[in-house]
From TrEMBL:
Residues 406-527 form the Arf-GAP domain. This is Arf-GAP with coiled-coil, ANK repeat and PH domain-containing protein. InterPro entries: ACAP1/2/3-like, AH/BAR_dom_sf, Ankyrin_rpt, Ankyrin_rpt-contain_sf, ARFGAP/RecO, ArfGAP_dom, ArfGAP_dom_sf, BAR_dom. GTPase-activating protein for the ADP ribosylation factor family. Residues 117-147, 217-248 form a coiled coil. Interacts with RAB35 (GTP-bound form); the interaction is direct and probably recruits ACAP2 to membranes. Interacts with MICALL1; the interaction is indirect through RAB35. Residues 378-398, 551-579 are annotated as: Disordered. It is a peripheral membrane protein. Residues 386-395, 557-568 have a biased composition (Polar residues). Keywords: ANK repeat, Cell membrane, Coiled coil, Endosome, GTPase activation, Membrane, Metal-binding, Repeat, Zinc, Zinc-finger. It is found in: Cell membrane; Endosome membrane. It comes from the Eukaryota. PH domain binds phospholipids including phosphatidic acid, phosphatidylinositol 3-phosphate, phosphatidylinositol 3,5-bisphosphate (PIP2) and phosphatidylinositol 3,4,5-trisphosphate (PIP3). May mediate protein binding to PIP2 or PIP3 containing membranes. The BAR domain mediates homodimerization, it can neither bind membrane nor impart curvature, but instead requires the neighboring PH domain to achieve these functions. It comes from Peromyscus maniculatus bairdii (Prairie deer mouse).
Length: 777
């Protein structure tokens, strides 16, 4: 209820004025109590929500652990991975909701209580003080005697001055009351409206996420029904088999033992045998019979045994062709037989006479077979005695400084075309698609969410926080640039853009524009030039290319000695004009001809993206993606280098961010085993190293020389990159030891990465200076 005080009554200081003051002051006091209570409840809700998010993350990590454990079951692993990824997205949405709640309810209302209500209280104190002084002046004026002219004049003057002061302060007090009463409505409604919009965005995102997951869940449900039927069928078969085996006569089981010389696994016969010690005492261990009972097998013309399945087999007889086997009846134990070789003999004991006969026959048959197949078996023994190269090869493969609110809105809307919605033209858009680099109205942003994050990633320009490299990416593109690509044929086709408010028309138009790409000018491009064309074009460019490569090698080495080279205009880390990802690391004689030097008319979308990534040309990169380029396309002519690796070589932080936002794999490596993080470390690009670590790059991966990024940075004495890598590794170990999977890390780690991100995007010359200073020392 809005309560105001009349200014005229204030001048009269009437009882109505005093009554109104009393009523207003009581109302304000009650309002303060209500707001304090609401803020406390909001804080409790946010704390509980954060605790819920932490517990939810731990639960989600448990699902991921279960998925990794189920790696041998593709269905379970894929399903659990998809579900854990979706739950991670919901955790992110929850986190965003709580952050926006803190800004809209806690921050705004607390500011209202601390600022506006404090001013009201201060004005009230002054009013009460001057009111008391006025009362004292009136009493004194009334008490002065008529014949004391001097006291009369003094009392009159004091009363006049006090009344004047009272009226001034009383008017200010009434003004403060009326302003407060007017402002309270807007402040309360503004905070609550922002809070409700945060909920709206949260439920929109959750709905879109699970709508996209819905078809997969439906298919999984149908597959699960089949699995249940198959499990019931397997259960019946197992029960039947169990019943059949249970009915067998185990007393005669020994007679059914068989040996198979041609067994697929090479094992002729296997089973438990007791073995007499081969020392001088020739004793059987009576106290610990498990010490002499071993699992024996005949395989590959050898007699071997092992105690446990994972133990390496111990060879008793190297070559059965040189052995004989015989019964042993002259010792106190039963069922014994001896295998004799030219160098030693082995006394063994079976569990029954039938088992002994079976083992003796198996050994004799193996000896005969070994003689018949002497040549082939010798070759097999040679192969077994030397480790294969294949096994060796397989063993070798074993809180940021963010921009938010009106600051991000103003900067992005300054880009040409961004002052109106990219799809419908509505003015003052407050949403953005970060992977496309465009601004959107709230209605179009909802439609973009429904497309899925693989087509458009929507973020608020006023409610969300913005990393510096992401904001710089938005400023590099814009509605005009993207519409020139995605609406290239719009006028030729005679299609008009939908108007604001036409929801169905918008949905059809946006889907046709970004999903079906009907308005993209699909010019003809050859998938790949022929080998003859490559040789002709490459030959004409050979001299120029070799000179560029030599210059790049010289400058790259110089860069490792003196620090990274970065421009101060756009945050790009400069590199000499070279194209090949391997030209910085390979000898000149081993370099392949690069298809990047071919004429642009031969470029397929993947190669166009590859080339534009090095050239730091974001419009060309967006155009290549619109033409269907695979963001993870690898150039077979240049050691499987990717567009992201080319962006590293080009030295542009924004280009790397654009590729990552569009699904580039931050851990995809070239044939030398080097991923983007390796290349950024070699070239000393500190900003890119920071970006890749934030985006989940694996810093433990090693290249073909066995070097990980940290060892490369240490060799190059690059203090900044060594610091980043060690901090990231330490933070990772701390999170693993404390079980805080998915947590961003401690405050020190976050602060340092904030500083590096801010400098890499806005003040790259500082990184350059710090790098040069570190080299001096």
């Amino acid at each position: 209820m809005k309560m105001t005080v009349d200014f005229e009554e204030c001048l009269k200081d009437s009882p109505r004025f005093r009554a109104a003051l009393e009523e207003v002051e009581g109302d304000v006091a009650e309002l303060e109590l209500k707001l304090d209570k609401l803020v406390k409840l909001c804080i409790a809700m946010i704390d509980t929500g954060k605790a819920f998010c932490v517990a939810n993350k731990q639960f989600m990590n448990g699902i991921r652990d279960l998925a990794q454990y189920s790696s041998n079951d593709a269905v379970v692993e894929t399903s659990l991975t998809k579900f854990s990824d979706s739950l991670q997205e919901m955790i992110n949405f929850h986190t965003i909701l709580f952050d926006q709640t803190q800004r809209s309810i806690k921050a705004q209302l607390q500011n209202f209580v601390k600022e506006d209500l404090r001013k009201f209280k201060d004005a009230k104190k002054q009013f009460e003080k001057v009111s008391e002084e006025k009362e004292n002046a009136l009493v004194k004026n009334a008490q002065v005697q008529r014949n004391k002219q001097h006291e009369v004049e003094e009392a009159t003057n004091i009363l006049t001055a006090t009344r004047k002061c009272f009226r001034h302060i009383a008017l200010d007090y009434v003004l403060q009351i009326n302003v407060l009463q007017s402002k309270r409505r807007s402040e309360i409604l503004k905070s609550m409206l922002s809070f409700m919009y945060a909920h709206l965005a949260f439920f929109h995102q959750g709905y879109d996420l699970f709508s996209e997951l819905g078809p997969y869940m439906k298919d999984l449900g149908a597959q699960l029904d089949r699995l249940v039927v198959d499990a019931a069928k397997e259960k019946r078969e197992m029960e039947q088999k169990h019943s059949t085996i249970q009915q067998k006569d185990f007393s005669s089981d020994d007679s059914k033992l068989e040996y198979n010389v041609d067994a697929a696994n090479g094992i002729v016969m296997e089973g438990y045998l007791f073995k007499r010690a081969s020392n001088a005492f020739k004793t059987w261990n009576r106290k610990k019979p498990d010490h002499i009972r071993r699992w024996f097998s005949i395989q590959n013309n050898q007699l071997v045994y092992q105690k446990k399945f994972k133990d390496s087999p111990t060879v008793v007889v190297e070559d059965l062709r040189l052995c004989t086997v015989k019964h042993c009846e002259d010792i106190e134990r039963r069922f014994c037989f001896e295998v004799v070789s030219p160098t030693k003999s082995c006394m063994l004991q079976a569990d029954s006479e039938k088992l002994r006969q079976a083992w003796i026959k198996a050994v004799q048959t193996s000896i005969a077979t070994a003689y018949r197949e002497k040549g082939d078996e010798a070759e097999k023994l040679d192969k077994k005695s030397s480790p294969s190269t294949g096994s060796l090869d397989s063993g070798n493969e074993s809180k940021e400084k963010l921009l938010k609110g009106e600051s991000a809105l103003q900067r992005v809307q300054c880009i040409p075309g961004n002052s109106s919605c990219c799809d419908c033209g509505l003015a003052d858009p407050r949403w953005a698609s970060i992977n496309l680099g465009i601004t959107l109205c709230i209605e179009c942003s909802g439609i973009h969410r429904s497309l899925g994050v693989h087509f458009s990633k929507v973020r608020s320009l006023t409610l969300d926080t913005w990393e510096p490299e992401l904001l710089k990416l938005m400023c590099e593109l814009g509605n005009d640039v993207i519409n020139r690509v995605y609406e290239a044929k719009l006028d030729k086709m005679g299609i008009k853009k939908p108007q604001p408010g036409q929801r169905q028309e918008k949905e059809a138009y946006i889907r046709a524009k970004y999903v079906e790409r009907k308005f993209v000018d699909k010019y003809s491009m050859a998938s790949s030039p022929s080998e003859q064309e490559k040789r002709v074009i490459s030959k004409s460019c050979e001299e120029q290319r070799l000179s560029q490569v030599r210059a790049s090698v010289h400058t790259a080495v110089k860069s490792n000695d003196s620090g990274i080279q970065q421009g101060s205009d756009d945050g790009r880390e400069s590199l000499p004009s070279t194209v090949s990802a391997n030209s910085l690391y390979e000898p000149e004689g081993e370099r392949q001809e690069s298809s990047v030097f071919l004429d642009s008319k031969h470029l397929n979308p993947g190669l166009q993206l590859y080339r534009a990534s090095y050239e730091k040309n974001l419009p060309k990169m967006a155009e290549a993606l619109a033409h269907g380029a695979d963001v993870n396309w690898a150039n077979s002519d240049e050691d499987q280098a990717t567009a992201l690796i080319q962006a590293v070589l080009g030295g542009s932080l924004v280009t790397c961010e654009f590729l990552l936002q569009n699904g580039a794999n931050v851990n995809q490596r070239d044939v030398q085993g080097r991923g983007p993080l390796h290349h950024a470390t070699v070239l000393g690009h500190t900003g890119q190293v920071c970006l890749f670590l934030k985006r989940g790059a694996n810093q433990h991966a090693t290249d073909e020389e066995g070097k990980d990024p940290l060892s490369i940075a240490v060799e190059a004495a690059n203090a900044d990159i060594v610091t980043l890598l060690r901090l990231a590794r330490m933070n990772e170990e701390m999170r693993e030891s404390e079980g805080l999977y998915g947590q961003p890390g401690d405050e020190t780690y976050q602060d340092i990465f904030r500083d590096f991100s801010q400098m890499a995007s806005n003040n790259p010359e500082k990184l350059n200076r710090f790098q040069q200073d570190s080299q001096k020392f």
